[in-house]
C-alpha cells in the first residue's frame, strides 16, 4: 500500500511570532522554519505503518518554496522513502493544496494519505477535509489512534468531550492529532542516508492546478498585551476587587 504524507514548512513552534510592520502577515525573513508539528506526527504514523508491514512506500509531499525541500529531507531522515516538492512562491491556500495532493495521489496510486490536523501558521484545519471531499474518499480527522486491517482503517478521533471511533474503507484520508504518537528524532546515519533519497520537483501547472489565492488578508494584528497582575493580601480583598472593580461576581 502506497502512502502519501503531507508536510508543510512553517515558522518553528518555538519562535515568538512577530507581525510585519505593514500588517500583511507575520515576519518570516531570518526566522527559523521547521516541519509543522502535526505533520511530524503524520510522518511518524506512516513510518509505523511501514514498520508493521502495512505500508510499502511512503512519499512525503510539500507545497511551497524551494527551501521546503529541507522539510521533505526531515521526513526522509525520519524514514519516508522519497519526496515530492510542488514548488511555488505563492502562499498556497488549503483548497489549492488539496487539489495538488489529489493530483499526486491519483498519479501515485496512493491508498492512504496522512496529513496534520492543522498547520500552526495559518490554523486553517481544512486541507485534509477538502482533500477527502475532492477525492470522494472517507476521512478520519483528529486521529489519536489508527489501525489498518482488511482494507479498512479504524480511526479513533478526539472530539469535544470524548473519543469517537470511525471505520473507513480504504482509500482514505487521515489527519493526525497531538496524541496519535510521539514522533522520533532522526538518527545521524538516517540523516546521512536521507541525503541520497530522491526528491522530485514539480510546479503547480504541471499538475494542472491554479494556485492563485482566493483570500485577501485585510490585516494581521498581535493580540492586545495583558495588563500586569497584582497580589492581594487576603481573600476578603480579592472578593471585594472581583465584585467592585472587575464586576465579575
Ligand atoms: P491546514 O488545513 O492549512 O491547517 O493544514 C492541515 C494539514 O494539511 C497540514 O498539517 C499539512 O499536513 C497539510 N498541508 C497544508 N498546507 C500544506 C503545504 N503547503 N504543503 C504540504 N502540506 C500541507
Give a quick set of tags describing it:
9-stranded mixed β-sheet; alpha/beta; binds adenosine monophosphate; Rossmann fold; 249 residues
Topology summary:
Elements: E1 2-6, E2 9-11, E3 33-35, H1 37-51, E4 57-64, H2 68-78, E5 82-87, H3 94-108, E6 112-116, H4 127-135, E7 139-149, E8 152-159, E9 162-169, E10 172-176, H5 188-194, E11 199-202, H6 235-244
Parallel strand pairs: 1-4, 1-6, 4-5, 5-11, 6-10, 7-10
Antiparallel strand pairs: 2-3, 7-8, 8-9
Helix pairs in contact: 2-5, 3-4
The structure holds adenosine monophosphate.
Structure characterization notes:
This protein has one domain (2-223): Rossmann fold (3-Layer(aba) Sandwich). The protein is 27% helix and 27% strand. It contains 6 helices and 11 strands. It has a 9-stranded mixed beta sheet, with helices on both faces. Strands 2-3 form a two-stranded antiparallel ribbon. A hairpin with a 2-residue loop joins strand 7 and strand 8 (152-159). The radius of gyration is 21 Å and the shape is globular. Adenosine monophosphate (AMP) is lined by residues 6-8, 36, 38-39, 42, 62-64, 92, 94, 97, 115-116, 118-119, 122, 124-128.
